[in-house]
Amino acid sequence: MLYQDAEDRKKKVRKFLKENPRATFRDIKRLLHTKIDKVYSGGMEEAFHDAGVNLPRTFKRKTKEENKRVIIEYIKKHPRVGAHTITRDLKVNPSNFFQTMKQAYDLADVEYPRKYLLKPKEQKRKEIILFIQNNPLASSKEIKNHTNINPYKIFKNFDEIYRAANLNKFNHRSKRLIKKQNQVVSFIKNNNFATQRDINLNCKTHVQDLFTEGIFEAYKKANIEFPYERLRLYGVGIEKVRDEARLFEEKIALKLSGYGKVNRLVKIKGGFADIILERKDKKAVIEVKNYKLKEISRSQINQLNKYLEDCNCDLGFLICHTKPKKDNFIMGKNRIFILNKDELSKIPYLMSEL
What we know:
By secondary structure, this protein is α/β, with parallel strands linked by helices. It has five domains: 6-51; 64-117; 121-170, no CATH class; 173-226; 247-353, 3-Layer(aba) Sandwich (Trna Endonuclease, Chain: A, domain 1). The protein has 17 helices and six strands. The protein has helices at 6-19, 25-32, 43-51, 64-77, 83-90, 101-107, 114-117, 121-134, 140-147, 158-164, 172-190, 196-203, 207-210, 215-221, 228-256, 298-311, 346-353, and strands at residues 261-268, 271-279, 282-288, 315-320, 328-331, 334-340. A six-stranded mixed sheet has the order 1-2-3-4-6-5, sandwiched between helices. The mean pLDDT is 84.
């Protein structure tokens, strides 16, 4: 028989189950002073459904036969699995339902991998040693994937593995360094004209940090003759880039001369400022970047900020072909703006307003 105020009690139960999705009927009775079967004729199952809460995993206990079927299906999908893995993944111990693991495998109609599961410890030890001798940079995960043996169940640590294999010890850092070096050497073998930029981008590294002699040593280890002819071509290319940058800077300076006094290549403490523009007792330091394939980086912004400090100036501009999304910066008392080449008319306005 249901309570007369069953609907009010249902609201309390629904709220309680949403806040405590693993609650039992005892919790409801103790905390809400309500017997669940006097609110829901279908008991806790109906209460969970009414609250829109999933039933707890242990709400319905499986029968022995149901557990057996679950284990058998798992073995069919994972034909080399052991009892420990089954217990871990299914939260069910197969020894409670089968006399032996072989019986479980026979019922699953899967050949019992006795040689694999009952491999002697000494044999496992030999397999790990052989693998590490052929692959001295291998990680524990690589050993396990290749041999199906957890090395830490046979050896205390990698030092012990290396001693058993009569190999010099490799720490994690040296392993990573050698692997990266091998990756770079392999890349050069497949790309005989690779530049430092090509290597760094494709191997996600800095070749100059991996080898003492940088890219030259990398080519030497790859047994590939370094393409010195490319350096000469690169020098010609650099000269062309310099000419283009100089012409771009001259055009910018010419346009800026319409807004005030333009001083070019001004020697300051930290180097040479491209342009210092003076207008109505105010001045701004202007750097011109002829970048076509890359955006202004943080290092260029920091460099301009340093120039501002050296010039005792608080306003700077970076002029480029294409500006990034973030185009203005406040760095202490200094303001820096990034403008593209078509926005030069903003400079006199910003100089007067700031």
